[in-house]
Write a structure and sequence with these properties.
The structure holds two protein chains of two kinds. Helix content of chain A is 77%, strand content 1%. By secondary structure, chain A is mainly α. Chain A has one domain: MetI-like fold, CATH 1.10.3720. The chains are: A mainly alpha, B mainly alpha.
């Protein structure tokens, strides 16, 4: 066996490592460099980029627009993650109480919504909220409202309402299924013992169920936060459909507009670093948990 | 959970369950049913709940559209290539991590964990610059490269669980019977890993097939668009007047393979994302 076992595992992880280093590691390093350089249109056309230290960051951090976008992103993230989690957990608890056929049907429905590709879901919801042909306008008008020809995407508030509906619609199934799976793991005998000891449903939930599902709950919440922080496709497509983009940018589309559309790669790279930092800060507990579990 | 649910609670839960079912199914139903309606029926005063005047015109139109064909070809190439490369690389890495103790093993695993948390949106600027520099913008290879990197961490993670699940003793028994280590692996362990390879392959397929963000960044040339990017552009072509029937038909076409594959691996997706994380 001699030397082989030592070289073999390294050889086996080499392809994956090399690819990750090329496709993620190198861009990450390059992004750090880029964020410290002046890299605009002139550089696009061949002028060598000049170092400008922290100027991109200074420019960005003193830019009111960035802070508006950041606040909007964080608010959108928390509202969506909160709604998704609340509805998902509520549904999981209800699923445990439904009669069998209804539960199976509900799960099939959730699976269907979960399986929808993002872009397909986006076109359907755009269609449902469409100004002229949308079912939502028709329903609200039939119900007595004045929604004929109402444009949902014209105002930032209703734009984000539509975005929230789609994001929550697509994300609830994962939470509901995962939490339902966790709930079925709660030991039955402990629940019964608690009931015999006179604990009401709320007390049983807080003192028996919650502690038992705590770790899954934490993972789900943090995953949801990290996903809702990076919502891009939904905002991008709704912007394309609605036309308003300045007041509806979240960090992802902001970086895209700044860099890919606007050609200001230096500032865009600095904004991307900012997004990375934000992700790390908001999901640090998840990362810590994973690292700890890996070490055990 | 407590076994006996009081009847009023159950009825209430059932009612909400039915409402949730409707909320989940209606958009999908609307997509499919409208895709069979001719344009003048979609435009009508009151929407028809059931498409009585069904036609295949929308599908004929979409399938006859050269741009759709091109996008389909690009999507298929990128997706299949991603699945192939990601599954192969992840398989090798998973075997190493599961079957060997070596220096750097722990940092490799932790790096995978951390990478998984990096949002594509935080890196696409420099990935774009890199692919631009390599002349790989608007190329299947370029997009595949960033896709593989995106799915690898999860794929390695999941496959590692599968390899862990095959008892070492089986391999050892085969070796006692005269197999070499390699033979034992290929004849005993590999066949047992087939379900795992299928599951991770399907996961990669769904990811790559649906992906939009990186596709819109990397494939800037309209002739090189993947299906999702093409669909968004198609929906956006307001100048011609929005043809919702055709849009719904193409959305349905894009959705079908995903639904089929999704149902295959759904159980593993539920456990994979969390149990993989929780179990370690």
């Amino acid at each position: 066996m001699g030397r082989r076992p030592r070289a073999l595992p390294l050889g086996l992880v080499l392809p994956a490592t090399a690819l990750l280093a090329l496709a993620l590691g190198y861009p990450l390093l390059r992004q750090v460099v880029l964020s410290l350089q002046e890299f605009g249109l002139a550089q696009q056309f061949g002028r060598p980029p000049a170092w400008n230290g922290l100027a991109n960051y200074r420019e960005l951090l003193t830019d009111r627009e960035l802070w508006v976008v950041v606040l909007r992103t964080v608010a959108f993230c928390f509202v969506n993650a909160g709604l998704t989690f609340g509805i998902g957990l509520g549904l999981a608890l209800l699923m445990a109480r439904m009669s069998r056929p209804v539960r199976i049907l509900t799960q099939c429905g959730l699976l269907l919504a979960w399986a929808m590709p993002v872009v397909a879901a986006m076109t359907v919801w755009q269609f449902l909220f469409d100004t002229e042909y949308g079912v939502v306008n028709w329903l609200l008008t039939t119900a007595g409202g004045d929604f004929e020809g109402h444009g949902w995407l014209l105002e930032p508030w209703s734009f984000f309402l539509v975005a929230t509906v789609v994001v929550v619609w697509m994300s609830v199934p994962f939470v509901a299924f995962t939490m339902y799976a966790a709930l079925t793991q709660v030991p039955e005998d402990v629940m019964e013992a608690a009931a015999i000891d006179g604990a009401g449903p709320w007390q049983r939930f807080v003192h028996v169920v919650l502690p038992a599902i705590r770790s899954v709950l934490l993972v789900v919440v943090l995953l949801q936060v990290s996903w809702d922080l990076r919502v891009f496709t939904q905002i991008y497509t709704l912007q394309k459909a609605g036309g308003v983009s300045n007041d509806t940018n979240l960090l992802g589309t902001y970086i895209y507009t700044l860099g890919i559309k606007g050609g200001d790669f230096g500032t865009a790279a600095a904004a991307a670093m900012f997004m990375l930092a934000l992700t790390v800060v908001l999901t640090a507990p998840y990362i810590r948990l994973m690292v700890k579990q890996e070490e055990d | 959970m407590a076994r006996r649910t009081p009847t009023p609670v159950r009825v209430g839960a059932d009612v909400i369950g039915v409402l949730v079912l409707l909320a989940c199914v209606f958009p999908v139903y609307w997509m499919v049913s409208r895709s069979f309606l001719p344009r003048n029926r979609i435009k009508g005063e009151d929407p028809e709940l059931v498409p009585w005047h069904a036609t295949l015109d929308n599908y004929r139109k979409v399938l006859g559209d050269d741009d759709f064909g091109d996008a389909m070809l690009t999507s298929l190439s990128v997706t299949l290539l991603t699945v192939l490369v990601a599954t192969l690389f992840a398989f090798l890495a998973a075997v190493a991590v599961s079957r060997f103790r070596f220096r750097g093993r722990r940092s490799f695993i932790l790096t995978l964990l951390l990478i998984q948390m990096i949002p594509a949106e935080a890196l696409f600027i420099s990935q774009y610059k890199m692919l631009d520099g390599m002349g790989l913008l608007n190329s299947v290879i370029g997009l595949t490269l960033v896709y593989v990197a995106g799915v690898l961490p999860f794929t390695v993670w999941t496959l590692r669980g599968f390899v862990d699940g095959v008892p070492r003793e089986l391999e050892e028994a085969a070796m006692m019977d005269g197999c070499s280590r390699t033979q034992a692996f290929f004849r005993v362990t590999l066949p047992l890993l087939a379900p795992g390879l299928v599951a991770t392959g399907v996961f990669g397929f769904i990811q790559a097939w649906n992906e939009f963000t990186l596709a819109v960044v990397v494939m800037t040339d309209p002739a090189k668009e993947t299906l999702p990017v093409w669909l968004v552009g198609f929906t956006d072509s307001r100048s011609r007047g929005v043809d919702w029937g055709a849009i719904m038909a193409s959305s349905t076409l894009i959705t079908i393979p995903v639904i089929v594959f999704f149902l295959l691996v759904q159980r593993r997706m539920v456990t994979g994302l969390t149990a993989g994380a929780v179990k370690g």
